[in-house]
Design a protein that fits this description.
The chain is mainly α. 73% of the residues lie in helices and 0% in strands.
Length: 156
C-alpha cells in the first residue's frame, strides 16, 4: 500500500498544475511505471475525491482555450479526443452555450483584428485568402471565417 500513497501524491502534484483527464493521469502513472491495478485504484480515489472528472475537465479546457488561445470547434474536438475525452462528452460540451465562453464568431473576429491592420488596402480576395487560411489553421469552419471577415470589412 506504500506505493499507492506515493503514486497518489505524485498525482496530486501533477493535478496542482492544471486539471487533467483520466487518460492523462493513466498515461502519467504508466510513464512512472505504476502497476495497472494500482493505476485504477489511484484513479478511483481521485474520482471519489472529485479531483478527476472528464466532463468538468472538458469544460475548463474549452474555457481556457477561448480565453487564451482561441481555437475552432474542429481543433477543440481533436484536442479533447487526444486527452481521452469521450465523443459524447465532447459533443455535449461543445454544443453548450455559456456566458463565460464567447461564441465562435466572436472569437474569430477578435483574432483577425491584428491581422486586418496589416492588410489595409489589400484586395478583398487576398484578405479572404490570407485571413481565411489563418483562421482555418486554427480550426474555424469556413462559415464562421466568412462571417468574421465580412463583419470586419462591413463595419466601416
Amino acid at each position: 500500500m506504500e506505493y499507492f500513497g506515493k503514486y497518489l501524491n505524485l498525482c496530486y502534484r501533477y493535478l496542482s498544475i492544471r486539471n487533467r483527464s483520466v487518460k492523462e493521469i493513466q498515461d502519467y502513472l504508466t510513464k512512472k511505471k505504476a502497476d495497472p491495478e494500482l493505476i485504477e485504484q489511484v484513479i478511483m480515489r481521485l474520482k471519489e475525491q472529485k479531483f478527476l472528472n472528464d466532463e468538468s475537465f472538458a469544460r475548463s479546457w474549452v474555457l481556457s482555450r477561448a480565453r487564451f488561445r482561441p481555437k475552432g470547434k474542429h481543433l477543440l474536438k481533436i484536442e479533447l479526443q487526444q486527452k481521452g475525452i469521450t465523443k459524447e462528452i465532447i459533443e455535449q460540451v461543445l454544443s453548450e452555450e455559456r456566458e463565460d465562453v464567447p461564441d465562435q464568431l466572436t472569437q474569430a473576429t477578435e483574432m483577425i483584428e491584428r491581422r486586418m491592420a496589416k492588410m489595409q488596402g489589400q484586395p478583398r480576395q487576398e484578405i479572404y485568402n490570407k485571413v481565411g487560411s489563418f483562421l482555418g489553421r486554427r480550426g474555424f469552419s469556413w462559415e464562421v471565417i466568412k462571417k468574421a471577415i465580412d463583419h470586419y470589412l462591413n463595419r466601416d
